[in-house]
Amino acid sequence: MKEKIISKASEMFLKLGFKSVTMDDIAGEMCISKKTIYKYFCNKEILIAESTETVHKQIHEIIDTIISKNYNAIEENFEIRKMFKEMFQSSDNSPIYQLKKHYPEVYTTVMDREIRECNTTFEKNIIKGIQQGLYRESINIKNYIQFYYHLVFTIRENISSEKESQKIELEILEYHTRAMATAAGLIELENQLLNYTI
Predict the structure, then answer these.
(1) Structural domain contains residue 136
(2) Are 178 and 135 in contact (CB under 8 A)?
(3) Which end of the chain is more exposed for a tag (fewer CB within 10 A), N or C?
(4) What's the CA gap between 168 and 120, in Å, rounded?
(5) Domain residues for 111?
């Protein structure tokens, strides 16, 4: 039952927002009593913390699956971007923006976890791109990871509209890729942009 509650709560939080969804709403959706939810979660913040951890695991499992398909480095980043777009397309408000505003302690935990995971993913992608001749060899990998990370999460933290966040994040991905790309990388980037639907 605990896993079912987390699953339903995660779905509702992402779609309707962390602030607006109540324990009553979750209980009503699941046709269970609120008391049943409180049996597993003594307050909403703990439920949010566990829900965000579950979503984090799901996201990174999907990212690992995308990476395992051996796309080239640029295509890999666009496939990951598509995954985020599909996962959050039903959200009106950016989940990260809401977490920061309404549940700052949970937000800090989420971001610490994301920094560790994302830094590893970004680093592997850049190394792969260099090996494939799509990114320049002279890149300071550590700095480029920081640049990209800060751009993406600054948008996530400060723009409430999920649709607007997605649009700007695509522009950030283009900016990030152009900064690293070789001539071959620029050709691949243009192909990806041509085939990407917002």
Answers:
(1) yes
(2) no
(3) C
(4) 23
(5) 52-195
Q: Is residue 14 part of a domain?
A: no
**CATH number, domain at 111?**
1.10.357.10
What SS3 string covers the chain? CHHHHHHHHHHHHHHHCCCCCCHHHHHHHHCCCHHHHHHHCCCHHHHHHHHHHHHHHHHHHHHHHHHHCCCCHHHHHHHHHHHHHHHHCCCCECHHHHHHHHCHHHHHHHHHHHHHHHHHHHHHHHHHHHHCCCECCCCCHHHHHHHHHHHHHHHHHHCCEHHHHHHHHHHHHHHHHHHHECHHHHHHHHHHHHHCCC
* Structural domain count of the chain: 1
Residue pLDDT tens, the chain, 198 long? 999 999 999 988 888 888 889 999 999 999 999 999 999 999 999 999 999 999 888 888 999 999 999 999 999 999 999 888 887 766 666 777 788 888 889 888 888 888 788 888 999 999 999 999 999 999 999 999 989 988 887 877 777 777 888 889 899 999 999 999 999 999 999 999 998 876
Angle between helices 44-68 and 104-131 (to 10 degrees): 10
pTM listed for this prediction:
0.84
Taking Cα atoms as reference points, which of 74, 172, 170 lies closest to residue 130? 74
